[in-house]
Design goal:
The chain is of the alpha/beta class. It contains nine helices and 14 strands. The longest helix has 15 residues, at 287-301. The relative contact order is 0.15.
Amino acid sequence: MSTDKPGIDPLDGLRAPQDPACDVFLTGTVFLDIVFTGLDSAPVRGTESWARGMGSSPGGVANMATALARLGLHTSLAAAFGDDHYGEYCWDALEQGEGIDLSMSHTVRGWHSPVTVSMAYEGERTMVSHGHEAPPPVPRANRTFPHCPPRARAAVASLAPGRSEPWVATAARHGARIFADVGWDETGRWDLDALPDLVHCQAFLPNAEEAMRYTRTDCPRAAAHALAERVPLAVVTLGAEGAYAVDAATAVTAEVPAIEVEALDPTGAGDVFVAGFVTGTLADWPLADRLAFAGLTAALSVQEFGGSLSAPGWAEIAAWWQRVRTCDGQDPAALQRYAFLEDLLPAAARPWPLRRAVPTIGFRSPA
C-alpha cells in the first residue's frame, strides 16, 4: 500500500453539518488475494513454476473500498470475514491500514476466508479462487444491514440478472446516489429489464461489450446513448480507447482517451475506474474531468501488481502529474486535459515512480 497519504479531501468545501458521515457505502465478498509476479509465462501442466515476487492483500470488494478510501472518501464496507488468520489479516489491513469503516461488517465463526491466487505474466493474469458463501449475519441491536444501510452520499452496487438487493432501494430512498457496474450475463439473455435495481441507479458503468449486448447495438457510443434512456448517467469503458459518457439530464457527452502505459496487472482496474468516477461526481466536477480522472487512476493501477495493492492515492497522482509536466515532447492538448489537477494536488513529496510496500502475511512489524 502507499505509505505517503497527503491529507486531501476531494469534498472539501462541499461538506455540511447535516451531511451523512459516510461518503460511500458498499457491500460484497472480501477475498484474500495472493499474487505471484515475475512469471515468464503461464504455468505448464506437470511442471513447477517459480515466481520472482509475491504479495498478498484483501481482494474482491476490498479493491473498490480501498480505491475509494485512498482517494479521501469516508468509506463504509459491509462484508463477512472468516475467523481464520486470513480474515484477521484482511480486517486489519482494511480498518487499520486504509481507514475503512467496518462497523457494518462481521466475523463468521467456523467460516474460512475466500481465497484467490493470481498469476501475472505478459500484462495479463490467470486466477484460481476458492470459497463458500458466508451464512447470513446474526441480527444485532446495533446492526440492521442489509435492510437498512447507513446514510451515505453514494453507494456502489454490482448488478446481476434476476437479482434484486433490498439495500439498494433503501439507500436510494435515503438520498444515496447509486453507482452500478455489472458482470457477464451467464444466462445469455442480456435483458436490461432483468436488472431490477437499475431503476435506482444514477450512474451505470458497463464495459463496451456489456453495453452493446444489453442495448443490441454494434457501437459502444450508441450503446451509451441507449443506456442514457434508462439511467441519468451512462458511462461505457472502451478499454485501450478510454471511456465515453452521456448525461441524460443535460445531454452533455464526453469522451476521454486512455493513457498509454505499460500494463503489468489489470486486476482491479475496473474498480479503480469506478472509484475515480464516484470521487469526481461527488466533488461536482465536469463530466469530462470525471472521465479523465477515472481513466488516470485506472492507468496508474495497472502499472502495479495486485488489486487493492495497486489502487493509487493522492501521492501517486501528484507524483505522476509532476512527472508528465517535466517530460519533454508532451502534447500540450493532452496536458491541458489534466490541468484541473493543478488546484487539487500538493507538491509531490517523492519522485515518480513511487516504490510501494507489498504486504505479506506473517510479518508483524515492518521489515
